Protein: Pyridoxal phosphate homeostasis protein
Amino acid sequence: MTTIGDKLQSVQTRIASACEAAGRPVTDVTLLAVSKTFGPDAVRAAFAAGQKAFGENYIQEAVEKIALLADLPLEWHCIGPIQSNKTRLVAAHFHWAHSIDRLKTAQRLDEQRPEGLPPLQVCLQVNIDGGSTKSGIPPGEALDLARAVAALPRLRLRGLMTIPEPLEDFDEQVAVHRRARELFQSLRAAGLALDTLSMGMTADLEAAIHAGSTMVRVGTAIFGGRPPA
Ligand SMILES: *Cc1c(COP(=O)(O)O)cnc(C)c1O
Structure:
């Protein structure tokens, strides 16, 4: 049987090979283990194998899991849609939120971030390929939103996050991820101090790293398949 530790190791090998192929240091890319739908025992197994950063989509599920794992020094990333009635939970329980796609969400997170905690680290979710069913702002709105979010004192804007539609072909995957990279660079050129480009999942992490990803969000390759949402 392949354990979570073994699968984590093979994802790290994939990341290292992709970095090497792209001429990038392996320290450029952080692995976020996406533990949505998997229980606390799976997270404990990944932690035992050296993994500290975990991503969750469903906020209620995540908050319960975070409480059950409070004895471990984990870093929790919210990568799913954030409804207004969930901002308080995100502000109180997570270290990062990748899925900011409107100013109102950011403002609520800013107001609700508890005093004793460091700023919430955030990324703007950009709909980089114009997928019709997805959340995320159009690329053309990224600069204005980034400036507004960067001004909020209890948040710290770190970068951009994308979830492109699945593509089979490596070069096509790279082409979409490159658009995100170019947008990221243009925001940096406009003076925003961004260091995080959150893109790439189980099926396209090599292409994402090739195009400049600094954080890949991997679920299936570590924890196995999920029942359809
Ligand atoms: C589920 C999910 C992932 C992980 O996807 P896999 O294909 O299982 O690696 C990454 N990012 C987001 C936003 C997700 O919802």
